[in-house]
Amino acid sequence: MPQSVERWVERIRSGDSRAIARAITWVEDEAPEAAALLNALRPVAGGAYRIGLTGPPGVGKSSLTDRLIRLLRGLGHRVGVVAVDPTSPFTGGALLGDRVRMVDHALDPGVFIRSMGTRGRLGGLARSTKDVLDLLDAAGYDVVIAETVGVGQSELDVVHAVDTVILALGPAGGDQVQMLKAGIMEIADIFVVNKADLPGADRTVRLIRYMVDLAHRRGWRPPVLAASASEGRGVEDLWEQILRHRTYLEESGEGRKRRLRRVEDAVWDQVLARVQGAFLQWKAARPDWERVLEEVANGRRGLEDVVDEILHSLDFSAGKAEGGVL
Ligand code: GDP
User: Fold this and answer.
1) Pocket test for ligand 1, best of 69, 230, 235, 238 (most atoms within 8 A of CB)
2) Under 8 Å CB-to-CB from 92, ≥6 apart: which residues?
3) pLDDT computed for residue 261 by the predictor
4) Which helix (H) or strand (E) holds 270?
5) What's the pLDDT tens digit per position in 198-221?
6) Checking phi first, is residue 161 left (phi over 0); if not, alpha (psi -120 to 50) or beta?
7) In 117-179, where do the E strands start and end?
8) Beta-strand runs (E) in the chain
9) Please, what's the b/e burial string for 44-68 (b: 16 or more CB within 10 A of its CB; e: otherwise)?
10) Which of these, 149, 124, 138, lies nearest to 23 by C-alpha position?
11) What is the C-alpha to C-alpha distance for residues 162 and 49, in angstroms, rounded to an integer?
12) In angstroms, rounded to a whole number, what is the distance separating the alpha carbons of residues 231 and 245?
């Protein structure tokens, strides 16, 4: 039975985890339902605090997230997590790690965890992750966490969609810094050296503090913490620093800037999606398209000339999300 957009919005806002899971699948599949639903949900999103947790594979991001969830549940928060693993072709909570974690939190309606892999288009992953953050936000999870492997461009894009960016490293963090995409050190608001129960962590904390001090000019100075997810150490400290950063964002006006930037990103994404949709529709209605391409290939027609013609004739209302029945 098809249901109205309003009904889906209602189910998602009431925290119906099956409806949320279905909506996330639509987002992953870039199904038309996703756009309609997101447009209806975005106005009620915005209440959640968004945290990005990034870092190389194996440093303990999932373990830290798990500890954070426990802490936050104890404080009465509802927590939504989207774990992005661009190396995995699986989605929909099919990852083993997820299943293991789900066992702990499966019966808790205050926790929602979902993994996303590379299904969908290249570059689509960052967009889908942002959409899922909006969904979880609208569903009433007041803390939402995006867990990403901090090595690629899409992770850099995702961190722009959150309020506080945490970069997790292992005890041999000095070496791992090399692995990270350039620019990721600069966007970290908090550094966590995990596995502090193992040798080397103290040295890594000192090294990163030194790097932070070198780079620091003014404003927020990212704290560098030591933690041990397996022993449950340092997690309260981490949450305290997140709250301190949240206060800083509010008081400095930086939070407002980040929110506006997020809106601008969303606008830009939709502009691109509309242009793409309009172009594909236009192209499908041009039986002579191959001939035009050949003319350009043979140098008989200029590329810019073709682009001008296309831009003049595109119908940008195509691909616009519509309400109604899903
Ligand atoms: P992720 O890939 O960054 O999400 O890392 P995981 O959370 O999956 O952890 C990778 C491995 O490190 C697992 O075997 C964890 O049990 C282990 N691990 C996580 N945190 C700690 C820690 O604080 N100390 C130690 N010794 N091992 C840890």
Assistant:
1) 230
2) 21, 24, 25, 28, 114, 115
3) 87
4) helix 254-284
5) 999 999 999 889 888 888 888 999
6) alpha
7) 143-149, 164-169
8) 49-55, 79-84, 111-116, 143-149, 164-169, 190-193, 224-226
9) ebeebbbbbbbbbeebbbbbbbbbb
10) 138
11) 8
12) 25
Contact residues of ligand 1, CB 6 A cut-off:
57-63, 97, 194-195, 197-198, 228-230
Length of the chain: 326
Q: Are 152 and 179 in contact (CB under 8 A)?
A: no
Residue nearest atom 22 in ligand 1 by C-alpha distance: 195
**Which residues on adjacent β-strands are paired with residue 13?**
none
* 96: amino acid identity, one letter: L
Using 50 as the pLDDT threshold, list the residues of the chain that sit under it.
1, 89-95, 99, 121-122, 323-324
Rounded Cα gap, residues 96 and 109, in angstroms: 21
d(CA 149, CA 33): 28
Tokens of 207: 């090294």
Please report the atom of ligand 1 found closest to the CA of residue 57: 2
Residue 188: name the closest of 118, 138, 233, 238 by CA: 238
Q: What is the DSSP letter of 181?
A: P
Q: Whose CA is nearest to atom 18 of ligand 1?
A: 60
Domains observed in the chain: 1-44 (no CATH), 46-252 (3.40.50.300), 261-321 (no CATH)
Residue with tokens 């119906």: 16
CA angle 302, 308, 309 (to 5 degrees): 95
Q: Whose CA is nearest to atom 15 of ligand 1?
A: 60
How far apart, in Å, are the Cα atoms of 116 and each of 22, 65, 90, 167, 201? 13, 16, 7, 20, 30
The amino acid at residue 22 is R
pLDDT at 109: 87
Among protein residues, the one whose CA lies closest to atom 9 of ligand 1: 60
